[in-house]
C-alpha cells in the first residue's frame, strides 16, 4: 500500500474511532454544565463528527478543508476535557493521543495530495502548494478561531442562558466565520498541476488566474538552487522550492494586495513550493518532461 493510501486509511480509521477515544473524557467535562449546554454540546460534537467522517470518505478539496479545520478542534476538546473532566489518566491519555493522531495525519502532505486529486480529471495530477509564510504567522490561526469558535461559541452561550451575548456572537460571528472558511478553503485550492498539454500553476495567492505552461516550452524542472534569481511565486512558503525553467517568457497576471486587477508580467523562470517536491519531479519524469 502506498503512503498516500495508507495515511488516508489511517485518517478514516482515526476519525471513526474518535468517539471511543475522546467521548468519555468529553462527556465527563460536560457533566458539570447545565442540561441545555450538555445537549447542545453533544449535538454539535456528534453532528460535526458525522460530517467530517463523510468528508474523509469522499476525497475532495472541500473535504480537505473540512478535515483540516475540524481536526485541530478535536485536539482543543481533548485538552479542555483533560482540564475539566474527572476521568482516569488512561482515558485522558487516550483522548489526547487519539486527537493528536488525527491532527498529524490530517496535515500530512500525502493526505493533501489524495484529497485535492479527488476532483481532478483522469489525465491530470495535482500537487498541493505549501501555505504562504505570512499566513502562518497568525493569520491562519485567527481565521481558524473565527471559523470554529464563532458559531460554536454563540450556540453554547445561548444554551447557557446568555441569550443576548450569544445572539450577538452569532449575528456578528457567523458571517465572519463564512469569510474565514472561504479563506481557509483557498489554501486547499493551491496546486501545481500536470496536464497533457503541459503544467499549470493554480495559486490565487500568487496569480490572478491559473497559468498554463505548454509542454513544448518547458526546459527543465528542478529543485531550486540557492542562488537563483527566478520569479519567486512561493510567497515565502517554508520548505524546498521547485524551479520551472522555460524556453521563452510566458505572460501572467500577478496578484497584488489591494489591486483587484493584479499586475501584468512575464517570466521564463519561476519558483513554487509544493508540499512534496520530490513527487513533483518524479511525476514530471514519468510524463517525459525534462528534470534535474
Uncertain ranges:
none
Q: How large is the count of helical segments?
A: 9
Strand content: 15-25%
Helical content stands at: 40-55%
What would you report as the Rg, rounded to the nearest angstrom?
Answer: 22 Å
> How would you state the average pLDDT, rounded?
93
Biggest sheet features: 4 strands, antiparallel
Which structural class do the helices and strands define? alpha+beta
Set out the fold topology.
Layout: H1 3-16, H2 18-30, H3 35-57, H4 61-84, H5 89-106, H6 109-116, E1 125-128, H7 139-159, H8 163-187, E2 191-195, E3 198-202, E4 211-214, E5 218-223, E6 231-232, E7 242-256, E8 259-272, H9 277-286
Parallel strand pairs: 6-8
Antiparallel strand pairs: 1-2, 2-3, 3-4, 5-7, 7-8
Helix pairs in contact: 1-3, 1-5, 1-6, 2-3, 2-4, 2-5, 3-4, 3-7, 4-5, 4-8, 7-8
Could you walk me through the main structural features you see in this protein, from its secondary elements to its overall organization?
- It contains 9 helices and 8 strands.
- The protein has 292 residues and is of the alpha+beta class.
- It folds into 2 domains: 119 residues; 94 residues, no CATH class.
- The strands form 2 sheets. Strands 1-2-3-4 form a 4-stranded antiparallel β-sheet. Strands 5-7-8-6 form a 4-stranded mixed β-sheet, covered by helices on one side.
- The radius of gyration is 22 Å and the shape is elongated.
- The mean pLDDT is 93.
